[in-house]
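Example record

One chain of 249 residues, shown exactly as stored in the release files.
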Amino acid sequence: MKIGASTLAGIEHDLENALEFIENLGLEYAELVHQHPSENIDIELLESFNLKYSIHAPFMDVNIASLQDKSRLNSIEQIKTSIDLANEVNSEAVVVHPGLASFLAHKYFLDDVYDAANEAIKEIGEYGQDLGVLTTIENMPTFDAMIYYDLYDLHELLTSYDMYMTLDIGHANHAGYPANEMYFDSIKHIHIHDNFGDEDDHLALGEGSIDLKYIVNTLEKNNYDGIYIIEVNDYDSIKNSYRYMKENF
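Predicted structure tokens for this chain:
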């Protein structure tokens, strides 16, 4: 079982601090949040650690589903920069958010938003495929601006593009999916954290109500060979979540 942690937990610290914590805990993988304050990542710093990496493409101020052409095209280019980084460091996977629907776009032009997202996802997927980089799309929680919180719709789209999903277990629970509906053969990467279904809390594993044992056991029975990235809010939550993984799986 491949287990890692996201540098999201140490985002208020410099990247070196977060990587030191993850490595010292004994984890093999770190997921780099490739945006401020780590928009420009020193490759030599990454190589100084005995870690393997996945990349989370930027999502702050980035929207590949924007109906404003310049905003959307710039966002796509930022995602491609993350794919380039992944190629350079031999990353296991790149995680991409599917975009957002702003208030007016959601009210009047939601079909157009999905069309823009689909075209952008296809372009990003082809870019990753050309470089040999596993580029995955993450399911979202059910906040007002979010799209592709429907796991079935996302799976269908990605299958049609010969692409793959990052299953965010906490997001799926927030969207109302029970544990027995969280497996798809398009899943190649996992974000694992806990909540009670009402908020996207990113709690330590075992601190919410998600049936994580059922979900992980289902993935393992289906020969899932990707990484489980612990995506929580602080270092203590990484430590507690890693202990949960070792004790239960």
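Notes: Residues 25 and 239 are 7 Å apart (CA to CA).
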